[in-house]
UniProtKB/TrEMBL annotation:
Gene source species: Micromonospora violae
Coiled-coil annotated residue ranges, if any: none
Required cofactor(s): Mg(2+)
UniProt protein name: Adenylosuccinate synthetase
Residues reported to bind GTP: 12-18, 40-42, 305, 331-333, 413-415
SUPFAM superfamilies the record matches: P-loop containing nucleoside triphosphate hydrolases
GO molecular function, one term: magnesium ion binding
Cofactor mode of binding and number, as noted: Binds 1 Mg(2+) ion per subunit.
EC number: 6.3.4.4
Record's subunit section: Homodimer.
Primary location: cytoplasm
Keywords: Cytoplasm, GTP-binding, Ligase, Magnesium, Metal-binding, Nucleotide-binding, Purine biosynthesis
Family to which the UniProt record says this protein belongs: Belongs to the adenylosuccinate synthetase family.
Length: 429
């Protein structure tokens, strides 16, 4: 079977890790194709164990799937090795991991610059995690980045780092009055990482091409989400890569003709971490309810997530942009007990009703949500396993999302556990 892309349809944190884990036992490869350790996936296994994954693909918890970190990811080796060790200590087999030699490294100067630049932006800050993701991608585009394969050649590593630090240390010291990065100490540190990472570094593109030729199933797992895409999201309040379905081809090195299914994950409401426009954001008791019941705190940062009602304009945009074939709606159970469950069906901008994403950043900042209120439900739905098990109002809510997004809903999450799902249509044959 050809490749499947799994993406987020909102601003991230939709529950992609749970869906990857759900599919993991039925796919042969799970590939992370974008982002860095600024992302986080939380997976809860059937025995109740909770895993917070940042760089490792969520398929790491599936016993048989090969797990790949593609060329489109930026890798902090210290973080990756800590994650590998943490999983190994809990009995998870990490020998199946392979990392593209073309993936770029996050270096100490990237982390230092990320933190100091964000601090100096003050009230205009983007809300980055400060982990060096943006500066690493910036160096990649500027053609002065350092890649995983460079760890295998100490001479190349030293030469590239020396070149990069000529500029970066000037900026750190003379512009921001920060301590310069020590070349020798950094080379020594990263050569130690090289010894441990060497067995995992591979030509992952060829591995995936061969797998597709054999008819094996490749699941491409994006970090972050559509509205954080560098080109198609709410720029500049976005991530530094392309987590949309098109980014999967670039970030994993496979042809677009290999993809025959795109699964998008969306919460039954909307959340966002960091700064940026958010038309349906709630500042009242309903927002507090969603945050508390939904445990809306970042997997990576622990930051409170901003919460709001479901935004069908955003979801429909994501479905059209990514060519979504199947929607997965997570956390429907969080809405239980609310008397009404509003859905944003359009925006009002300067007194004019619009039903699609506005073209300009200014218009989106000024967009006021137009809500359609649906009746809520009070019944416990966490034991539901078929559509008929859901209360009538919950079924109406899901049906309205399908209608507004013009995309079928295939799975509905009714709890955090791996088995707590209602299946409407099979995600895999």
């Amino acid at each position: 079977m050809p490749a499947i892309v799994l993406i987020g349809a909102q601003w991230g944190d939709e529950g992609k890790g749970k869906v990857t884990d759900l599919l993991g036992e039925r796919v042969d490869y799970v590939v992370r194709y974008s982002g860095g350790n600024n992302a986080g996936h939380t997976v809860i296994t059937p025995d109740g164990q909770k895993y917070a994954l940042h760089l490792m693909p969520s398929g790491a918890l599936s016993p048989d799937a090969m797990i790949i970190i593609g060329n489109g990811v930026v890798v902090d080796p210290k973080v990756l090795l800590a994650e590998i060790d943490g999983l190994a200590e809990r009995g998870v087999d990490v020998s199946r991991l392979r990392i593209s030699g073309d993936a770029h490294l996050i270096m100490p100067h990237h982390r230092a610059l990320d933190r100091v630049i964000e601090r100096y932006l003050g009230s205009s800050r983007i809300g980055t995690t400060g982990r060096g993701i943006g500066p690493a991608y910036g160096d990649k585009v500027a053609r002065i980045g350092i890649r995983l394969q460079d760890l295998l050649d100490p001479g190349i590593l030293r030469k590239k780092l020396e070149l990069a630090l000529r500029e970066k240390n000037q900026i750190l010291f003379k512009v921001y009055n920060r301590k310069a990065i020590d070349l020798e100490a950094t080379v020594e540190e990263y050569l130690e990482y090289a010894e441990r990472l060497k067995p995992y570094i591979a030509e992952t593109r060829a591995m995936l091409w061969d797998a597709l030729d054999r008819g094996e199933t490749v699941l491409l797992e994006g970090a972050q989400a559509t509205m954080l895409d560098m080109d198609h999201g709410t720029y500049p309040f976005v991530t530094s890569s392309n987590p949309t379905a098109g980014g999967a081809c670039v970030g994993a090195g496979i042809p677009p003709t290999a993809i025959n299914k795109v699964i998008a994950v969306s919460k039954a409401y909307t959340t966002r971490v960091g700064a940026g426009p958010f038309p349906t954001e709630l500042f009242d008791a309903n927002g507090d309810h969603l945050r508390k019941i939904g445990a809306e705190y970042g997997t990576t940062t622990g930051r409170e997530r901003r919460c709001g009602w479901f935004d069908a304009v955003v979801a429909r945009y994501a479905c059209r942009l990514n060519g979504v074939t199947d929607l997965v709606i997570t956390k429907l159970d969080v809405l239980t007990g609310l008397p009404t469950v509003p859905i944003c069906v359009g925006y009002e901008i300067n007194g004019v009703r619009v039903d699609d994403m506005p073209m300009s950043q200014t218009d989106f900042h000024h967009a006021k949500p137009v809500f359609e209120e649906l009746d809520g439900w009070s019944e416990d739905i966490t034991k539901a396993r078929s559509i008929d098990d859901l209360p009538e109002n919950a079924r109406r809510y899901i049906a309205r999302i399908e209608e507004l997004c013009n995309t079928r809903v295939s799975v509905v999450g009714v709890g955090p556990g791996r088995e707590e799902n209602v299946h409407l249509h099979p995600l895999l044959p």
